Amino acid sequence: MTKILAFGDLHGDRAKAKELAEKAKKENVDLVVICGDFVSDDNDLSHLLGIFDRKVLIIPGNHESPASVSFLSELYDFKNIHGYSYKMNDVGLFGCGSANIGLFQMKEDEIFETLKKGHKYVKDCKKKIMVSHNHPSGCIMERLSRFVPGSKGIKKAIDDLQPDILLCSHAHEAHGVEEQIGNTRVINVGRDGKIIEL
User: For residue 133, what is the DSSP state?
Assistant: First the structure.
């Protein structure tokens, strides 16, 4: 069994980061997955994420640059899965950070191509988990938010790549919401985090 703690949208909240690190330890998770927006701006990355004592997978949100995520990955031995992948116990995770709005945004076709690129390395895994910051277009999460649109690129990736699970955040009003899109379980993990067991 693989046990994952996934969260996003900390926006620099060090107390919440500490709480999540303690939760990861208490629940004895195998992986921590960070779905972006761990800072509010790209200027303060210090002493926020280095407190996790297990393997961490990370993608950028729309509040931090891909360069910052690369820096943190090297500093703390995190695995950046923006356009890449990670395998553990027949579970393959692949991701795309950023969003279709915000400081660090991507075009919809870039989002899809980035997910497709990471997926090719895990396509034969028994379980596939897609990790994004943005949520897909046409979903309940999109309707709950007044500010952030869903991503057509992520929806296309769900339709074409058919992951078992999508972990996302971004829409604060939809934290904790789960829904089914085709064969994919879509989870907005939010800042409180969600434990996933496979």
Answer: S
Helix (H, G, I), strand (E, B) or coil at 33: strand
Looking at residue 194, its pLDDT comes to 96
- Is the distance from CB of 7 to CB of 34 less than 8 angstroms? yes
Amino acid at 51: I
Q: Beta strand 85-88 with 91-96: parallel, antiparallel or unpaired?
A: antiparallel
pTM over 0.85: yes
> How many angstroms separate the CA atoms of 176 and 178, rounded?
6
* 60 vs 139: CA distance, rounded Å: 22
Task: Count CA atoms within 13 Å of residue 138 on its CB side.
Answer: 10
pLDDT band at 115 (very low <50, low <70, confident <90, very high): very high
Residue carrying the six token digits 């075009």: 107
Quote the tokens at residue 190: 């939010």
Q: What residues contact 30, with CB distance under 8 A and at least 6 apart?
A: 2, 3, 4, 54, 55, 88, 89
On the CB side of 122, how many CA atoms lie within 13 Å of its CA? 29
Q: What is the pLDDT of residues 70-98, one digit of tens each?
A: 888 888 899 999 999 999 999 999 999 99
Answer yes or no: are the C-beta atoms of 90 and 100 closer than 8 Å: no
